[in-house]
Amino acid sequence: MTPALDISGLTKRFGDTLAVDDIHLGVPQGSFFGLVGQNGAGKTTTLSMAVGLLRPDGGSARIFGEDVWSAPERAKAMVGVLPDGLAMPERLTGREVLTYLGLLRGLSRDVVTRRAEELLSVLELDGADGTLVIEYSTGMRKKIGLATALLHAPRLLVLDEPFEAVDPVSAATIKTILRGFVAGGGSIVLSSHVMALVEQLCDHVAVIDKGAVAAAGTLDEVRGARSLEDTFVELVGDQDTGVKELSWLSH
Ligand SMILES: Nc1ncnc2c1ncn2[C@@H]1O[C@H](COP(=O)(O)OP(=O)(O)OP(=O)(O)O)[C@@H](O)[C@H]1O
């Protein structure tokens, strides 16, 4: 079966920094795929290239077989993206953002109105109906970003840190939505630093370290008999075990 997302040899350099170094990853259809890695490991850069937001120096990405760079319209129609540091039309309300982006996606006004209503209600943003996105809290921005990713009912979701800054009640709602999406045949790739969350949600995982894949496979293949956190620390942790502390903080 064609992978939902097929990343082949993606490479990106920023000046002297090799941010992503020949990454190959296959996200099977119907999988819930977690991407983990330390700060600066290259997760956001990889995901940005994979969905056509950042041009790679080398390699390619295909969404259900459609090349993101040579067939962007076909590829992008099938994916919903929650990017890092999402740029939004800030002077619109959440509902206006969804309406605007839904119409741009080619949805009919009726469908957009209905879906926007449901998304705002489920994500508990309907209470802030008159609030402009520029006035949203960080968690609210995350939620409206997720709503824009879901609006056109894509087959693949690519979510960069979807739970960051989201309160526990909203996080539970989002987990339910995402599990339902996968149960309904959708595929998800998400990045996170929270190992427990990845273990709870994902059936596949890749550990990224210094721009390369340190381990990838099903959750059980990657973690074996240990916790994902132990596996992660062992794979990418600082080998220098000397205790680092700020002595001037002790009283
Ligand atoms: N626009 C940019 N210009 C210069 N360097 C960049 C840029 N974007 C990323 N980098 C560098 O590329 C490397 C990978 O960054 P990236 O944001 O992909 O990591 P990450 O795994 O998503 O990190 P985090 O978990 O902190 O979000 C880092 O060294 C970062 O400093």
What report would you give on this structure?
By secondary structure, this protein is α/β, with parallel strands linked by helices. The chain has a domain at 87-153. The chain contains nine helices and ten strands. The protein has helices at 43-50, 72-77, 94-104, 109-122, 138-150, 168-183, 195-201, 219-223, 228-236; strands at residues 5-14, 17-27, 32-37, 58-63, 66-67, 79-82, 156-160, 187-191, 204-209, 212-218. It has a six-stranded mixed beta sheet with strand order 6-7-8-3-9-10, sandwiched between helices. A four-stranded antiparallel beta sheet has the order 2-1-4-5. It binds adenosine-5'-triphosphate. Adenosine-5'-triphosphate binds at residues 14, 17, 19, 37, 39-45. It holds the Pfam family ABC_tran. InterPro entries: AAA+_ATPase, ABC_transporter-like_ATP-bd, ABC_transporter_ATP-binding, P-loop_NTPase. It is found in: Cell membrane. One of its GO terms (molecular function) is ATP binding. It is a peripheral membrane protein.
Question: How would the blueprint of this fold be written?
Answer:
Layout: E1 5-14, E2 17-27, E3 32-37, H1 43-50, E4 58-63, E5 66-67, H2 72-77, E6 79-82, H3 94-104, H4 109-122, H5 138-150, E7 156-160, H6 168-183, E8 187-191, H7 195-201, E9 204-209, E10 212-218, H8 219-223, H9 228-236
Parallel strand pairs: 3-8, 3-9, 6-7, 7-8
Antiparallel strand pairs: 1-2, 1-4, 4-5, 9-10
Helix pairs in contact: 3-4
The structure holds adenosine-5'-triphosphate.
GO molecular function, one term: ATP binding
Membrane topology: Peripheral membrane protein
Subcellular location: Cell membrane
